[in-house]
Amino acid sequence: MRSRRYTLIGLVLTALMLFPVYWMLNVSLTPQQDMRKSPPDLFPLHPTFEGYRSVLDDQLPYLGTSLLIGLGTVALTLVLAAPAGYSLAKLRPRGGGALGLALLIAQMVPGIVMAMGFYGIFLDLGLLNSWWGLIIADSTIAVPFGVMIFTAFMSGIPGELIAASRIDGAGTFRTFWSIVLPVSRNALVTVSLFSFLWAWSDFVFANTLDGGGDLRPITLGIYKYIGNNNQEWNAIMATAVVASIPAAVLLVLAQRYVAAGVTAGAVKD
Amino acid sequence: MTLARVDRPRRRTPAVAEVSGSGRPAAQRRLRRRSRLTALAFVAPLIAYLAAFYLYPLYRNLDLSLRDYTVRSFVAGDAPFSGWDNFQKVLDDPTFGPALRHTMVFTFVSIAFQYVIGLALAVFFNRHFRLSAVLRALFLIPWLLPLIVSASTWSWMFNSESGVVNYFLHFFGVDPVGWLTSPDWALPSVIIANIWIGIPFNLVILYSGLQNIPAELYEAASLDGASAWQVFRRITFPLLRPVSAITLLLGLVYTLKVFDLIWIMTKGGPGDSSSTLATWSYQLGFGTLLPKFGPGAAVGNLLILIALVFGLLYIRVQRRQEA
């Protein structure tokens, strides 16, 4: 009986919290002529898909670019962070403590400062407006986080497992590849998930480093859309809905990894 | 968006060489050196990466802030060294005071509400009821959405003529508010949106902190007939203190950096009414047709300095907890 009351309160709280998300969906389905209506329709009474049609017409290439940049960032982050995490957790290189501190501090640097530094460098190298320049810039958000997740996770792998692999004659790299990586699946999923989401949502780097290229990510697609066109809010919100799909899919598929990623290491275990 | 703990207790398994002492020292030394090189080889790419894509951009930014740049000299790369001029210019600028004040207000008000609401929700979800896990997962959505999505949604909700927020207020007899267009309301508007985005993070961390409080304590309290408020004040809150400290400090470090949300919703305006150090720095560097890279970089470096102060505090608190 009591539990049912809590469920009810919980439902109300969740509905309140998710109202903006609902509103985004509602507006995306509202016909253009009803957009300025007062009072606004609280439900999509006359749903229209015109907003979504313009997404398909205008924004599809941006979505492709974001996917490319997201996957590229995941690959780069894993390649750098997994071996480094293993080394910090198990091989204990000289200066490992200092490196850990550097990674903590790296996460405190504001993105806007990094963007300004990158802008100068990319200008010199002619990398502005390139998708792989964005992959490099976006990876700076995920790499320190990735190393820390891998280090924390791999410290928990029993030393016996690694010693056994050594006795069987495997070298350090072989041990890492065929023993450590497979048991670190959870950490791999968590790091991939977050690096993808961050690269997908990046706005600062995209807006400073990729203003005029052919391959622009979806965040810029929406931003330019708002700038050029602040009338068709159904199309803007339809784009926003589509841009949120990866987050929604990942939340459904990998819910426990999301929670793990948020809490990992931030709290003493 | 979390910081993981890197330092684990250094309980080394003593290497064979260290234990046996005698034997064949030359061979053992060679072996030890090889394993040290392997350890280094596994972190070498990371070190190279950090040098190229963290240290070098930061150095470039520092260099920018110490030179007198124009668009032309920025491309040509021959700007004259000007020492602390840019910093002086920035500190004398009439925008500096408001931007610093807005940064502080934005950060502290956001964090206070995120924390209190997050904690209340964490305590609520800590009870067992049907759908509790599903609803808790749904609460993560605002945090996972791309910022441009949340920012544009809130912009439209806050629209003064057709926004749904003003529509709801009208039920309570409140006159329409020019949320994003009035200098008095622009900062509160972006703070409200930012609180909404930050609640999930606080909820998840505090919830996991609650899970670690032993159930026996609550059983004992309920045997003693303690009220819900007493339980919270005497057990939950004090035992959660370390987790709370970490949550608040992490929030501080991250909220100081917030840029996208404010930029997309108000561009720091109207006037300077919602500009923070982050948006101001961007405004100087990229926001106009005549970029002022030097002063922009100077503001960015000041922001790093502030973030570092709180960052080091975070590291201290975390270290102390581990000890």
Q: What do you see in this structure?
A:
The complex is a heterodimer of chains A (269) and B (323). With 269 residues, chain A is mostly helical. In chain A, 76% of the residues lie in helices and 0% in strands. Chain A contains 13 helices and no strands. The longest helix of chain A is centred in the first third of the chain and has 42 residues, at 50-91. Chain B is mostly helical and 323 residues long. Helices cover 71% and strands 0% of the residues of chain B. Chain B contains 16 helices and no strands. In chain B, helix 2 (25-65) packs across helix 16. Chains A and B meet through helix 1, helix 2, helix 3, helix 4 and helix 5 of A and helix 2, helix 5, helix 6, helix 7 and helix 8 of B. Chain B: Keywords: Cell membrane, Membrane, Transmembrane, Transmembrane helix, Transport. Chain B: The chain crosses the membrane at residues 37-56, 104-125, 137-157, 185-207, 243-265, 293-315.
Task: Summarize the SSE layout with pairings.
The complex is a heterodimer of chains A (269) and B (323).
Chain A: H1 2-17, H2 19-28, H3 50-91, H4 96-106, H5 111-125, H6 131-155, H7 159-167, H8 172-183, H9 185-201, H10 204-209, H11 218-228, H12 233-253, H13 255-263
Helix pairs in contact in A: 2-12, 3-6, 3-9, 3-11, 3-12, 4-6, 6-9, 7-8, 9-13, 11-12
Chain B: H1 16-20, H2 25-65, H3 71-76, H4 85-92, H5 96-125, H6 132-138, H7 141-144, H8 147-157, H9 164-171, H10 186-211, H11 215-223, H12 228-239, H13 241-256, H14 260-266, H15 277-286, H16 293-322
